[in-house]
Predict the 3D structure of the following.
Amino acid sequence: MILIKRIEKDVWKEMFAENAHLAVFDERIKKDKEVIDFALIAVDQDTDDLISYVTVREYDKGHAHWYWGGSFPKYRGRVSALRSMEAILGWMKENYIKMSFFTQNTNHPMIKFGVKHKFQIVGVRLAQGALLLEHVIEFDKINQEES
């Protein structure tokens, strides 16, 4: 079973951010450049292993944005990585009306995740030489479509 834990931004930045980003992206993050409100971690309840994480920026009470995130190397490409991101998405659905994220146009697993879960690609952005796709979902609209 996967447990989702919320980590407040100061604790995240002090204790987790640098190592998590390095493990997932194989690069160092500049802690002062990451503007977030909190992080969510997915933990395997049986082993206490961290499976994946996302950092979250709240735009307002109803809309949040996944800033950074991904699966840790041990779980990358496994079903448990997908399930952990789905569990994080479920947490978001319980707490927000709308959410968004950017992903590189070469990040096929995350693009497929967005399509599978009915995110709409609403824009593109060029950042540091990478083409990013903006994904948005409005949970209440998805719920209406499924009814």
In short: The beta strands are 2-8, 38-44, 50-60, 63-71, 98-104, 120-127, 130-138. The chain has a mean pLDDT of 91.
